[in-house]
Amino acid sequence: MEAAILVKCDKVWVNARLATMAGPGLGVVEDGVVAARGGQIAYAGPRTQAPDFTAEETVDCAGRWITPGLIDCHTHLIYAGNRAQEFELRLAGASYEEIARAGGGIVSTVAATRAASEDELVASALPRLDALIAEGVTSIEIKSGYGLSLDAERRMLRAARRLADERAVDVTTTFLGAHAVPAEFAGNADGYIDTVVHDMIPALAAEGLADAVDAFCEGIGFTREQTHRVFETASQAGLPVKLHAEQLSNQHGAALAAEFCALSADHLEWLDDAGIAAMAHAGTVATLLPGAFYFTRETRVPPIDALRAAGVPIALATDSNPGTSPMTSLLLAMNMGATLFRLTVEECLLGVTHHAALALGLGDRIGTLEAGKACDLAIWDIETPAELVYRIGFNPLHARIRRGQ
Length: 405
Hints:
2 domains, Urease, subunit C, domain 1, globular, Metal_Hydrolase, 15 strands, seven-stranded mixed sheet
């Protein structure tokens, strides 16, 4: 009889239940094994089909559940100050648009962020990042957009990059220069977009500080034509695009994003059938942000049924930001996605793993438990994956593994 071939690994997790997110459904494996080698998954699947491993360390999970590490694919984590006063104004009846037009909103955070040093931005962001990490987040997208000048946007993006050095987390950066018109360009949005496309994008792309480019296409943001200019320049610089689209009105931004094969279109409360069809054709992910919907007390729900019918992947994110979603819990975002948008448990969990990875253009590297992908794991003290969506204010994380460590 031939001797069994032993497969060398760094670490093996046994006696686990897996939600691989690789399908069908959640890709559940009741008696599962995950093996890591060189920071990647060497095997994830049933114990009965696993090869014989020789590993430096074997971990008995005692029946706990393992999911991919969670992914927060839309955040504005780098900023200074807060907007608690605006929260009070909204409680008194002011709308988000009214506050923005009166000089509040994004522009108020710009002033505080411009005055902060890179070190101060890093220090203020770390507690927010730590809260997400504590819930099993292993990858996060961080947008700029509170600087609105080349120097300030560069400082934000550098601060975001530094977070990956300060903590064991993967950070994807997105340049959101077209977030609002700064005070020095008041009444001259086209002039500001000139600066974005001629100065900011080329410089930041050359410095390697941005992984993608985003814009806010909205009545209080930028027009479809202005957004088109931003996307054209981003494409010329070799950067993929994303878009804040159809949050407060239908500007047909999602269809524009799809023209540029955008990674994602986000918010989408006012998305129409034409936008859905364009997204489906382009493979653009719909990233839903229930925290902002809840916090601004919106009432128009994104067209979930139509997105499902068209086969558009749905991601979920915190939209962590100081003005409309001061939330640092991806578990809460899942509960909100289920309760406010009527997403299923499966949709919520895929939304913060596999589909969130697609929204970052990283579907080949993270988001599922499959051989060859990064060994980013979240190990949970739960009886069923539904608990991760069902509970509020409860964190059942047992262990968080990034790159096998």
